[in-house]
Amino acid sequence: MYDCAIIGSGAAGVSAALTLKALNVNFIWFGSRALSKKISSAEKIKNYPGLQDVSGEEMRAAFLRQIDGAGITLTEKTVTGVYPTGSAYTVLCGEELFEAKTVILATGVEAVKPVKGELEFLGKGVSYCATCDGALYRGKTVAVLCTQKEMEGEVRFLASLAKKVYLVPLCQGLEIAEKNVETVRGMPLEIKGNARAEQLVFRDFTLTIDGVFMLKSASPAVLVKGLETEEGQVKINRKTETNFKGLFAAGDCTGRPYQYAKAAGEGNVAAHAVFEYLK
Amino acid sequence: MYDCAIIGSGAAGVSAALTLKALNVNFIWFGSRALSKKISSAEKIKNYPGLQDVSGEEMRAAFLRQIDGAGITLTEKTVTGVYPTGSAYTVLCGEELFEAKTVILATGVEAVKPVKGELEFLGKGVSYCATCDGALYRGKTVAVLCTQKEMEGEVRFLASLAKKVYLVPLCQGLEIAEKNVETVRGMPLEIKGNARAEQLVFRDFTLTIDGVFMLKSASPAVLVKGLETEEGQVKINRKTETNFKGLFAAGDCTGRPYQYAKAAGEGNVAAHAVFEYLK
Fold first, then answer.
1. pTM of the model
2. pLDDT at B111
3. Which of A235, A257, B63, B189 has the highest count of CB atoms within 10 angstroms of its CB?
């Protein structure tokens, strides 16, 4: 049982991790050494105090040096669900299970809005996790929307199982040369079906599918059932408390401004709130 | 008329200034190139994302490089009052007057609590500003409490006017070798008097005085009459809004955790709130 689980490795996650470490809290941190798409893809950051006119890549390098220097480990797994279990939380990564007394959500915001029908068919043909649900589509036809090149491995995993994969890249540089992978260009408009998802509708054409995988940063409200949101963003107070006791949120997932300094600030506050809560 | 006045040059002020500059807002920034006592005196900072294990002096150097690089000017004046004037604010620095449509208070917290009687006799023998009120004590006897070595100049100014100065240093390294300056060691307990301040009471002795100067960072509630506070700290919401429209607050003056990242985050949010407000 960990004292805290941090989910997300953008500026908020980095800040929370450094502060929990300084406070000597026993935590697990889910994220990626890419840190975040937002950090690594930023062209020039002009207003983060302490790092003068850095590129995203330079900010990433500075953060990684600091994390490694502090002896902090990043657990490179994708969290697929967070479940309150009485006085603690269970964090699910596919079929793996972790327990923590508190959770800090620092998942960022996904630039891609939900497709019409996405939430309706979630669990009925729509999945966010290739590792978890891939096996259900062995020999079948799936569409895979993917917002991050880093998730290429999950697409390949699906291609190894499914008969046919329609890959809808919503990012640059994602190309998979497999016989059963067909790349489809365009933004899907709707997922249609009766009991389950059956069609992925684009402006000029429609794909017939058995399932749709949405490979993107998980939205907090999908991760945690019952999480209170406001216009799609996690509702917190100044202490970063959500409507669940022991569950805190920080960074872009809590709303504008979408800024590194704001995210780092909230990550720091969340770590202190966790510390107070554990006492 | 400026669009914004930032008061204070700790991490919150620095962050607000960098962001207002990036947003192309026309602002004036009151502070000191020492930035803040807290920054320059920190031994080792372990959890500020982006600056690995820096000393306060190194953080200060990094912030100054960035400020200078962005072409931002620090106005090294002490703000003595902020007055709402209809739709804008007047910022007073002694006898000098500046106008701004919005204000960001980033004054930090003063480690030294008010002395008993301090607020009662404010304006009746108690003053926070040597430049403003010094002339009233020409040829008289004053006590000067001073929490920052950087304010030495103000003590010298008072010594040039008053007959006698009792200097009560509440910091290290403050020594003034003038014939009419007597250094008094200890923490004053109370200011006593009838209509005006007449005595400064210590545990073992009492000074008879005509006035008491409290040379320390101004508390926001003293700067802005009617500012809503909670346990002595400025009450803000998540947008850093105070109970005055157009008046925002950020950093340690808004409460715990007293952390650089939290302060920088709030400074960033305040700058964006100003930008929204001006639109």
1. 0.83
2. 67
3. B63
